[in-house]
Write a structure and sequence with these properties.
alpha/beta; 16 helices; binds zinc ion
């Protein structure tokens, strides 16, 4: 343990591992290569479901899945409040994409955060701020102003430049943990595609910012902090915007939805989109019933129609025990967990493509599922439905599709949010050795705490590197 060690976490929002590798192979990310990967390593890890900004930051700062934090998506419905008056109805239709954005900090139902555990923390450009001390939250104004403008006109490079400048300025202050968020790659990807030159340029700028930070830190002398670099989700090009809310309305089901219909009269369903490639549905949202519905309480005909949509890769819901039912076309399986073992029981076909019945330890199931088109799906579906706020039914999109109409301004030419590989796989680099087993983004918080010599709290979903196979014994 190194009591005086420091950690810098760099979050490259929406960075794809293959894009990062492409740039590394061409020598275009020299600082990431020299100061992070060379002393440590780079691997492809997996994020959480829904694979979307904000929600997928929770693992880095709390070491927990969104389901454990009771944040099932970037949008979700408060079932009890949805039955109230106009003000309550607006509050109940939670969306962290707009003015309710800051509510994520009070909605998160787990803790402590990295910022609580490491009081000398500074964060730059993050929506998740719980536990930060006074003056420790930087680039808030730019995030509010440039971020909302960037959303419409694509000025993300200016926002990333503000982040880079603030990052450099932290070298004039004392800190032990630095949380640095670059929103540019994700923002530009939505407007273009993951391989567009304007997107690649954002990676290069972030690498240059790392270079400037390291150069100045070296001039100052002293030990270099450890670097952890990761993305919160991937992205893929969208060819089809399959707006489930609009379809439900066409099918005669009045549907509560964002942004204009959170007061929908006589709503029989609510759709809460994350990413935009996943959507959670809540049935009879004005009933005031606080508990989620299980499979037998969900309208069968609607589920069948939704499953028949070409955009849908799979649907999932709770069964009447403590398992999750997974549906894909005609295929059907049950996922459950007992005594630390994750069980996958195909009931018809093989919706997760795991090849048959399996009962494995968590990390082995992760490894097994990494070979499928929906990496870590068993664990991710279990963790999502751990949240009582999660919808009655969740739909995840297949490649090339999302669940919000082309009416969205600006149109999402690319997106994320689903369980598919392109959205779930993320680069994870660190200047310390990485385990040889598959890792998840949720493992990084305990790993960083270990490096800081701060005791890892009990009850985390993530596992510190020292307890994973393949780490040099000096760290274990
Ligand atoms: Zn995004």
């Amino acid at each position: 343990m190194q009591p005086e060690s420091r950690v810098v976490f760099v979050l490259i929002d929406g960075a794809r591992p293959d894009v990062l590798q492409f740039l590394l192979d061409r020598g275009l990310l020299p600082n990431l290569a020299r100061w992070v990967i060379e002393p440590g390593g780079l691997t492809v890890g997996t994020t959480v479901f829904p694979s979307t900004t904000g929600v997928a930051y929770i693992p880095f700062l709390f070491g927990c899945y969104p389901g454990t934090a009771n944040i099932p998506g970037i949008r979700w419905l408060d079932r009890a409040e949805a039955a109230g008056g106009a003000r309550a109805q607006w509050r109940a239709a939670r969306s962290y994409c707009g003015v309710q954005g800051g509510w994520i900090n009070t909605d998160i139902a787990c803790g402590p955060s990295m910022f609580d555990l490491v009081p000398d923390s500074i964060a730059i450009c993050t929506p998740v701020t719980r536990g930060l001390g006074p003056g420790a939250n930087l680039v808030t104004t730019e995030r509010a102003i440039l971020g909302s403008v960037a959303h419409y006109v694509g000025t993300y490079p200016s926002l990333d430049r503000a982040v880079a400048d603030a990052w450099l300025s932290t070298l004039n202050r004392a800190w032990r943990f630095l949380f640095v968020v670059f929103p540019g790659p994700d923002g530009m990807t939505h407007l273009k595609d993951p391989w567009h030159p304007a997107v690649l340029e954002t990676y290069l700028e972030i690498d240059a910012a790392l270079g400037r930070f390291v150069a100045r830190a070296r001039r100052q002398g002293g030990a270099m902090p450890a670097f952890f670099v990761a993305a919160d989700h991937g992205a893929s090009v969208m060819q089809e915007h399959c707006d489930v809310a609009v379809l439900l309305e066409e099918w005669g089901v009045p549907t509560l939805r964002h942004p204009m219909h959170v007061w929908r009269r006589g709503a029989r369903a609510a759709t809460m989109v994350s990413g935009n490639a996943s959507v959670q549905l809540y049935f009879d949202p004005r009933a005031g019933r606080a508990t989620p519905r299980t499979e037998r309480e969900i309208p069968e005909d609607l589920v069948a129609r939704l499953l028949a949509l070409p955009a849908v890769r799979l649907a999932a819901c709770r069964d009447n025990r403590d398992g999750v039912i997974v549906l894909s076309g005609d295929a059907r399986a049950r996922v459950s967990e007992t005594g630390g073992l994750v069980r996958y029981e195909p009931l018809r076909g093989d919706p997760l493509g795991l090849g048959g019945r399996l009962q494995l330890e968590d990390r082995d199931m992760l490894a097994q599922s990494r070979g499928t088109d929906v990496p870590d799906a068993p664990r991710q579906l279990l963790q999502l439905f751990r949240s009582p706020r999660a919808g009655d039914l969740v739909l995840t999109a297949g490649p090339g599709a999302d669940f919000r109409g082309p009416w969205e301004i600006p149109e999402h030419k690319s997106g994320h949010g689903s369980l598919i590989r392109d959205h779930m796989e993320v680069p994870i680099a660190a200047s310390v050795p990485l385990p040889e087993v598959p890792i998840r983004t949720v493992d990084l918080m305990p790993a960083m705490l270990e490096h800081l010599g701060v005791p890892v709290p009990a009850g985390l979903d993530g596992v510190p590197f020292s307890r994973l196979a393949g780490v040099p014994s000096s760290l274990a």
